[in-house]
Structure to design on (960 residues):
């Protein structure tokens, strides 16, 4: 993978902009076919892709095989979503001269926003990378995509991009529908380019902030969809600990060590009662860890866990060290609410990797204090006993996250209609999701047609509903 | 109206933040009742409100009476919208262990984002001010509102705020649900305050950019919904001019002079064939204008029209001057595409007030060049002859605006389900509308509940659908 130079980036974005006008006129069934073609081609070369990705990321064959299956399932799901048609939010108001003010014939639909820059993630070489959810959802709604590859898996990126490009070409998609660029500077050139109409980014809070500032400096600001850092708090009630402490220890250990802890949904802070069974049982579930995704990520893990270890009032436990020279250890820090309160910044900055922080609370008042210190997250999880009244706790947790779990663990993000992968800052900066059916809404903008002749209307808005899609007509949802 | 000091702003936002948690648990029917109570109280004091507003804005009794009626109709419409329930986007996925990856029980709903800062507009002392669309849509979904009053109509603002506050109190809304602040510094304090979760602004591009920069400097960025400047291009085909030139001249004159041209949807640039009937007929429809909203706006109008007049290759026509000492003249500038091309910045910066620019094109190629120079707008209007094939023109216009009109004029914005009041930068910075039913989406954020017991779910997501609202269940839209 060679770094793209500014001239190349400019050519690529111009080509995407030219494709944009053509894509805006394609039918949903056409783009659905493209997505399924990409999925089929990726599946057909699964063995090769997984092998290369494992060489580059050490994420292991089973996980990578699953991740690729998730990626192609996701492409097919977005094909289903656009064929279903609700994503267009087609809305028709027939004229109503009696309204205040009078209503003309008004018809509103969501249209593609234009070329999208996608920044691939380090930790999902398939599902959040070249042909991942951002790319799939932007292509689905008719936006050309330029992906900035992550340097952590360059060969995986190259081969995937090749497969996507060929599939699109063979399916008849316009030149410029998809392209990949490489290198830090190429990423900045993308964000600065007038032809780019939206940016989707998965990465660090610092990286996301830098892009936000860069976008703010453009003559024309554009939407930025950042999936950034997340602590994913877990609350364990005293009753839950008493009943299920041993199981919770095993579940927590499995979740925070999954994929060497390199998940945006890793549980990074766990509020537990003092003297919990969970804490007592946890050590035996800690395991030596394989190498991390990149040396930069490994360095960040060391720096972050040392920062926490250095706080007075924090104890640490850790797994054995891997025999592997570049392997690492799992680490758990333990502290109390008083220490958390005076060291909030040091203790609540995300440590990306196999690390979690147990915060021991003595009573509900202390639990409440701990909750008040937490920043926004993608998820928040509650473990309680079936009989407990948790309404007040749920009201406390809801403002903290985009997804609330009752039991279970936050790692593992289903791709479905009701999924929400996005939460208050610093987890994301948006009111949308980056996973699940409604992820497409990030790349659409509304257009209303007033008193338009039927012939010039997009098919979704024609009176006879030729696409047979769900619409709202004169305020009433109508499913054909 | 006294300027609010920082301490007052802080108290007000803290009170709004406290109310936020309570509002998030109110029922839709409760907030609908609040909105209707506000509407009723405003209607009951219509005479007084209109009189005060006319003294402050010179917008005249008929227009202001209509605007207040629109404002109270809008409050009632948002009440209807939340009672209908689709605005919650309630979505339920039942567990599907066979999916890749497996789907747990997932239920997604839109929740209030938290306290909203609303910046009132100068040009709509009712409909885009204290109790206008931004306030109504934020309250509708359960967000407390702090409005920054516009200094152009301080007494109108004071009385309206009093009415809103009393109506809410009498309806049982929590303290902190609504407040008004005044003064430039108070506005900045609002935008900086950690308790504010979104900002809605109607005003100049420059003002909007300043707030965007201010928000980018917050530790936690928040959504900014700016309704900024808009040229609202109109295209008149040769056939339309030949058939309807005289009527088009009358229609254009009425639209660009309406309310002394002080509308965000004023047609500010009109692409006409060379030697058009429209241009020949226009002078006799130009009328002397009353005073503008504020002396600052009047100065801006003078500066802007002088800037255009100073461009070589531009001719001007204007109305008689009003006898009124602080009245003004309507002005029309005329130029050709070649001049537009080399003076784009000078000629295509919005001139707020009774001004429009006619650009004469010789053929389709020149029309195409002119279109390529236009920035984004709230609206774009096409006047063509019934027989013409306008498909290519529509494809050219669509990327330029949020609302496309076929015949008619862009001033006059209906409040309905399909309305779209928002377009590409610099008209707005969002993918949402600030007028119409979906304006509420700006102040909502999605939350998904995973494997939650029915009892802790919001009513909208409970299995039995106690609210009887439209929902998507396992991918299928279901209307009760």
């Amino acid at each position: 993978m060679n770094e793209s130079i500014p001239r190349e980036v400019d050519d690529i974005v111009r080509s995407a902009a030219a494709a944009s006008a053509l894509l805006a006129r394609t039918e949903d069934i056409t783009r659905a076919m493209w997505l399924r073609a990409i999925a089929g081609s990726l599946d057909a070369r699964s063995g090769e892709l997984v092998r290369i990705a494992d060489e580059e990321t050490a994420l292991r064959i089973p996980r990578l095989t699953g991740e690729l299956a998730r990626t192609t399932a996701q492409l097919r799901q977005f094909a289903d979503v656009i064929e279903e048609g609700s994503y267009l939010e087609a809305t028709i108001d027939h004229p109503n001269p009696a309204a205040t003010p009078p209503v003309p014939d008004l018809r509103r639909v969501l249209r593609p926003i234009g070329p999208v820059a996608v920044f691939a993630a380090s930790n999902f070489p398939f599902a959040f990378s070249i042909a991942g959810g951002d790319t799939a959802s932007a292509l689905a709604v008719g936006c050309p995509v330029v992906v900035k590859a992550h340097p952590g898996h360059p060969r995986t990126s190259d081969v995937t991009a090749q497969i996507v490009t060929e599939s699109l070409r063979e399916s008849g998609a316009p030149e410029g529908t998809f392209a990949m660029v490489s290198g830090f500077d190429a990423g900045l050139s993308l964000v600065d380019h007038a032809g780019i109409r939206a940016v989707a980014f998965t990465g660090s809070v610092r990286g996301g902030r830098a892009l936000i500032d860069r976008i703010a400096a453009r003559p024309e600001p554009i939407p930025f969809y950042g999936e950034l850092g997340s602590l994913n708090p877990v609350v364990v009630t005293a009753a839950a600990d008493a009943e299920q402490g041993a199981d919770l220890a095993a579940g927590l250990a499995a979740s925070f060590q999954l994929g060497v802890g390199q998940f945006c949904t890793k549980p990074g802070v766990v509020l537990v009662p003092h003297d919990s069974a969970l804490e007592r049982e946890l050590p035996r579930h800690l395991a030596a860890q394989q190498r991390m995704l990149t040396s930069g990520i490994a360095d960040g893990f060391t720096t972050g866990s040392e920062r926490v270890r250095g706080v007075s009032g924090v104890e640490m436990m850790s797994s054995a060290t891997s025999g592997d020279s570049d392997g690492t250890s799992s680490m758990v820090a333990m502290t109390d609410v008083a220490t958390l309160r005076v060291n909030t910044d040091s203790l609540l900055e995300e440590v990306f990797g196999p690390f979690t922080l147990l915060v021991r609370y003595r009573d509900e008042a202390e639990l409440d204090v701990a909750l008040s210190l937490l920043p926004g997250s993608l998820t928040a999880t509650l473990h309680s006993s079936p009989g407990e009244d948790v309404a007040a706790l749920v009201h406390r947790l809801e403002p903290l996250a985009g997804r609330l779990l009752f039991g279970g663990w936050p790692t593992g993000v289903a791709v479905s209609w009701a999924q929400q992968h996005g939460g208050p800052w610093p987890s994301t900066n948006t009111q949308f999701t980056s996973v699940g059916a409604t992820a497409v809404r990030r790349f659409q903008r509304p257009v209303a047609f007033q008193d338009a002749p039927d012939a010039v209307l997009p098919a979704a808005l024609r009176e006879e509903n030729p696409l047979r899609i769900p619409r709202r007509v004169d305020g009433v949802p109508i499913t054909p």
